[in-house]
Amino acid sequence: MTDQLGYEVFLNQGPLQTTGLLPNGELRRFSPIASTLIRGRKQAVLTDPGFTITQADALAEWVAGKDVDVTDIVITHGHGDHWFAADVLADWFGARIVASPGTIAQMHANAAARRLLWDTVYDDIPPSPVTAVPVPDNTLTLEGHELRIVDVGQTDIDDSTVLHVPDLGLVVAGDVIYNGAHQYVGSALGPDGFGPWRDAIAKVEALRPRRIVAGHQNRLGDDAVRTIAGTRRYLDVAEEFLRTKPTALDYFTAMIERYPDYAGRLILWAGAGVQYGVREPSGIDRLKVVVSAWQ
Ligand SMILES: [Zn+2]
Fold first, then answer.
1. Is the pTM here over 0.90, yes or no?
2. How many Å lie between the centroid of ligand 1 and the Cα of residue 71?
């Protein structure tokens, strides 16, 4: 039956922020975001549709050319960049939005943070009501094939999930696995550091996927072994530089030197801002630190 199932990836460009520059003078552009279309003969499931009207338009046009009926839109985790445009796409296709209960809770938190965080630097985000629903056993079907939402815990956000498609040997990994893009390190602030994220990667590996679609990538292909190894190595390097580089700017510069081809330097800088910001005496107010790191 596998020959009736396939997948394709659409990579949407990240939007520019409305103000400011990175410390090296570059524009503040968000990482590219990957949406995966898992398709049967007539029906399809779409993942993580992005967060701006421009991205929604580009994705809708791409999907419309595929001649399939999108039944469900799966959101892998609560970060707004993966789903603020979901309702627009769901309306367009008459689709249901699906996520784990943990992700739905995180979506509400991100929606509540829009005014303070997202809307201060992006002018193109549509209304984003949380209309996602959970599904029994975190499992949905596409023309008889099972698609499983797998809870993996904290990565660059709490309550992360991946979408496992056993019949394709595929994992759609959201922010658990990255591919040629800077990983957001601003959420790993607990005493265990990147420990929970490493545990989550092991849970993905245990699914024995052949292909992994990373949520943020620069189109280097979907090989599971390589993307898992790259994500682990990045955490090792980040951990070392966070320990040895005295300032956020030193960390930012060192990471760019180590990963000159990676997309998402805005995400690199924001993550550094949070990691170094919480070390300051004023860093006790984590919300303030996070907001200023993104602006
Ligand atoms: Zn993300």
1. yes
2. 23
The rounded distance, in Å, linking the Cα atoms of 258 and 262 is 9
CA distance 135 to 180: 32
* Centre of ligand 1 from the C-alpha of residue 37, in Å: 18
Q: How far is the CA of 1 from the centre of ligand 1 (A)?
A: 32
Distance CA 207, CA 210 (A): 9
**Options 3.60.15.10, 1.20.1090.10, 3.90.550.10, 3.40.47.10; which CATH number does 2-233 get?**
3.60.15.10
- Looking up tokens 């180590």 gives 258
Question: Could you tell me the maximum CA-CA distance found in the chain, to the nearest angstrom?
Answer: 59
- Going from the Cα of 59 to the center of ligand 1, the distance in angstroms, rounded, reads 17
The CA 130 to ligand 1 mean position distance, Å, reads 17
Query: What is the distance in A from the centroid of ligand 1 to the CA of 199?
Result: 18
Domain edges within the chain: 2-233
What pLDDT digit, counting tens, does each position of 120-158 carry? 999 999 999 999 999 999 999 999 999 999 999 999 899
